[in-house]
Every structure is written in structure tokens, then in C-alpha cells.
Write a structure and sequence with these properties.
Layout lengths: L2 H18 L6 H34 L2 E3 L5 E3 L3 H5 L4 H33 L5 H9 L6 H11 L6 H8 L14 H26 L3 H9 L4 H12 L1 H17 L2 H9 L11 H11 L3 H26 L8
Antiparallel strand pairs: 1-2
Helix pairs in contact: 2-14, 4-8, 4-11, 5-8, 6-12, 8-11, 11-14, 13-14
Length: 319
């Protein structure tokens, strides 16, 4: 047999052996399966503890549920009743005011702290830890501490003001001051957390941009306006989005108000989420509370979609 014939025969034998082997999954498919197994516990948790309760709450809004086994189908009655509920409409107005003050206030304070602790100053690690420290404490504990500090006349805040000749105020008892006081405490609690997010975004900006700005003679404000701010816009979008969701349905919207004011005085701090809690667990109107919660979720979903649409997913590219 000639040499070319031997090469052809060897090639045919190799193809026969290769064809007889069982074909396994490709690397891409194996990685996809492995990733699915890693994600499965979290996906099940989200489905069981978030997805199913949301669907049940949406459906419960069409029923009159008193918590004692009495369930009556009422159609859209709960959804129409909320628009004639003066207290619910009032809680929505308080929620809107809370959002318009909380989101920008938290944004500015967190960004300022992030820029401050990014500087090369002595003990910068200590300052970062101090600003973040409130987040390791329960919101309920924070609420009780601040409530003690703000007690009329005998509270530490009023005593310090009286020492410098300023008369104390009823910070939690005056309808004109209560919501502002809650906002100050809330921003103080969360600004360290969002400071860390901003700090991560700032550290992603290459120092070469700042060096180029310095060589061009740019001052601090010009550097922030033309270098820091444009490159920080994706992080800014994330902070705005998360703080908006937190303002509408976050834990501070319930925990601090429950501990410090119970929605008072005169419903001046009764946010939508707190009023929903009252209807469900104090008055037993579970169906009505579920309808109001579904309405808030829809409003939040629409606001989120609008933010993504206007900012193009946080890129802010209008040209």
C-alpha cells in the first residue's frame, strides 16, 4: 500500500473513532447550567417571598378581607374607594413632599461626603467609618435614640439650644416641624450608605482626567462640573433610583415614623406606606390595604420607567 493510501486510511480511522465518541455539552452550555444552579436559590427566594406575595396582594385588592376568614369579592370597590378617602389622599401628598425633600437632600449630602472623604486627609479611614456607622444600627434603635434626644424641654437638643439662648421647639409635636425632623434623621441615617456608593463611582474616574484639568488651569468648580459630574452620572442615576424607591416603600418610611411619631401630629408624617399598615394591621381592612399598596407599586413602576426613558438608562446622552 502506498504512502498516500496509508494517510487516507489513517484519516478515515480517526474520523470513525471521533464519530463513535458520545458528544457532550459544550463549554458554553455547561457554564449556563452551572450559573443556573447558583442562581436557583435566590430566584426561588424572590419568587416565594416577593413574587407570589405581590400577585396575591394584587388579587386581594378585589376582595373584602377582614383577617378572620371572611372573604367577599367586591370588584373595583377598594380601588374606587381610595380616591374618595381624604386621609389616603393626604398621605399621598405627604409622601410626595417627603420624596421631593428626601431624594435631593440625600443626594447632595451623600455626594458632598463622598468628595470630602476621597481627599487625602489625615484619618480619612476614621471619617469614612464614622459616617457609615449609623447603618450598622437598627432603624428602630435609631428612632428611639432620636426620639429621646428630641423630647420637649428635657431633650438634649432643646437643652443645648437653651444654653446658647435659643428657645426649644416641639420637634415631633408640631405639625410644621415633625416631617422636617423625620427627614433630617432619615438623611443623617442614610447619607453614609450612599456616600460609599458615590465613593465607589469617584474612585472609578481615572486620575488622568483630573491631571489634564489641572494642567488646563481648571479650578475646583470647573473640575467638578466638566470632569467629575459627567463621569459620575451613571452612579448618580443609580442613587436617584434607589433613593426614590426607598422614599416610597423603604423601611425608614415606616420604622422611624412608627417609633417617633405614629403618623402624627395631625397626620403630618403619615406616609402612604404607614397608612397602608394602619388599614391592614390596626383596622383589619386587608383588601383595602392591598389595593392601596398595588396602586403605590404602579405609581413607582411608572416613575421608574420614566426615569429610565428620560435618562436612557442613566447615560444622560441627549445628543
Amino acid at each position: 500500500m502506498s504512502f498516500p493510501s496509508l494517510l487516507v486510511k489513517e484519516k478515515e480511522d480517526m474520523q470513525a473513532v471521533r464519530g463513535s465518541r458520545p458528544r457532550g455539552l459544550s463549554r458554553k452550555h455547561r457554564e449556563w447550567i452551572a450559573a443556573s444552579f447558583f442562581l436557583l436559590p435566590d430566584m426561588l427566594g424572590l419568587l416565594i417571598f416577593l413574587g407570589i406575595p405581590m400577585v396575591m396582594a394584587l388579587g386581594m385588592g378585589f376582595f373584602n378581607v377582614d383577617g378572620f376568614g371572611n372573604i367577599t369579592f367586591v370588584g373595583l370597590q377598594n380601588y374606587t374607594a381610595m380616591f374618595s378617602d381624604a386621609q389616603f389622599m393626604g398621605s399621598l401628598r405627604v409622601t410626595l413632599l417627603y420624596i421631593f425633600l428626601f431624594v435631593p437632600g440625600l443626594f447632595v449630602c451623600s455626594l458632598f461626603l463622598a468628595i470630602l472623604v476621597k481627599q487625602k486627609i489625615p484619618l480619612v479611614g476614621v471619617f469614612r467609618s464614622m459616617f457609615f456607622l449609623p447603618n450598622v444600627v437598627s432603624l428602630v434603635v435609631v428612632g428611639f435614640v432620636w426620639k429621646f434626644l428630641l423630647i420637649d424641654k428635657i431633650g438634649l437638643i432643646n437643652q443645648l439650644l437653651q444654653m446658647v439662648g435659643i428657645s426649644g421647639n416641639s420637634w415631633l409635636g408640631d405639625p410644621k416641624l415633625a416631617l422636617g425632623t423625620i427627614l433630617v434623621v432619615t438623611i443623617w441615617f442614610w447619607m453614609g450608605y450612599y456616600m460609599v456608593i458615590f465613593l465607589a463611582g469617584l474612585q472609578e474616574i481615572s486620575p488622568e482626567y483630573y491631571e489634564a484639568a489641572r494642567l488646563d488651569g481648571a479650578g475646583h468648580w470647573s473640575t467638578f462640573r466638566y470632569v467629575t459630574w459627567p463621569l459620575l452620572k451613571p452612579t448618580s442615576f443609580f442613587v436617584l433610583l434607589v433613593s426614590l424607591v426607598s422614599a416610597v416603600a423603604g423601611s425608614q418610611g415606616f420604622d422611624l415614623i412608627f417609633v417617633m411619631t405614629q403618623g402624627g401630629p395631625a397626620n403630618s408624617t403619615s406616609l402612604g406606606i404607614f397608612y397602608i399598615y394602619q388599614q391592614a394591621f390596626q383596622f383589619g381592612n386587608y383588601g383595602y390595604a392591598a389595593a392601596m399598596a398595588s396602586f403605590l407599586v404602579v405609581i413607582l413602576l411608572v416613575a421608574t420607567i420614566l426615569m429610565f426613558t428620560v435618562t436612557k438608562g442613566g447615560r444622560f446622552e441627549f445628543d
